[in-house]
Design brief:
Helix content is 24%, strand content 22%. By secondary structure, it is an alpha+beta fold. It has a single domain, classed as 3-Layer(aba) Sandwich (SMI1/KNR4-like). It has an eight-stranded mixed β-sheet. Strand 2 and strand 3 form a beta hairpin. The protein is globular. The protein starts with 10 loop residues before the first strand and ends with a strand. This is SMI1/KNR4 family protein. It holds the Pfam family SMI1_KNR4. It comes from Gemmata algarum.
Length: 192
């Protein structure tokens, strides 16, 4: 694994005028850990320090901002803190998601509502530097483990969401059944 200075060189930030500069990441990350009651994964912290949180990878999925925004009408998906509080509340889908899973989940992203992404703090995969197993939670279904760390999840997103990898197997295409192509060398990340 590359060191923190190089590990995300393959991610290409897309800078927009409206995007706020990354905040004092360490201060915000430490505050979020206190609110969540768990350390955040080392890879996630490194990504936040370098790029900031609150943005979109490829065209999806979205990474939530870390801390709640000061808005008149907060929404459960405004931040990691808001999303995690919601999913840990009785309003969450307890009939599909076991309470012991929800109590140890940190919700960090979403795919337009089709899938929610979470770290499971009870499943440490990198004890030397805190890393947690990453789950996807498809709408209306139980949690499914997909990666061993945040960095692995970024590679999973890059392989699955990069339009360059899509083969010609779509129902609406012209009959081209070519196999999927390898992902491009970089993955865009656009902060909002």
């Amino acid at each position: 694994m590359a060191n923190d200075a190089e590990r995300f060189d393959w991610i290409r930030p897309i800078l927009r005028v409206k995007a706020a500069p990354p905040p004092d990441a360490d201060t915000d990350l430490d505050a979020a850990e206190r609110l969540l009651g768990s350390p955040l994964p080392a890879g996630y912290r490194a990504f936040a320090r370098r790029f900031g949180l609150g943005g979109r990878l490829h065209t999806l999925p979205e990474l939530f901002r870390l801390l709640p925004a000061d808005t008149p009408e907060p929404h459960w998906a405004d931040s990691v803190i808001d999303a995690t509080r919601f999913w840990r509340s009785p309003d969450a889908a307890e009939d599909v998601l076991p309470n012991d899973f929800l109590c140890q989940a940190i919700i960090f992203g979403i795919d337009e509502g089709a899938r929610t992404f979470a770290f499971h703090t009870g499943e440490v995969t990198g004890p030397a530097a805190a890393e947690y197993r990453v789950y996807q939670i498809p709408r209306g279904c139980g949690p499914e483990p997909i990666c061993e760390s945040f960095e692995d999840w970024l590679h999973w997103v890059h392989r699955g969401y990069d339009p360059a990898t899509w083969g010609g197997t779509d129902e609406d295409d012209d009959g081209d059944d070519s196999p999927p192509r390898p992902p491009s060398h970089t993955m865009p990340y656009e902060r909002f």
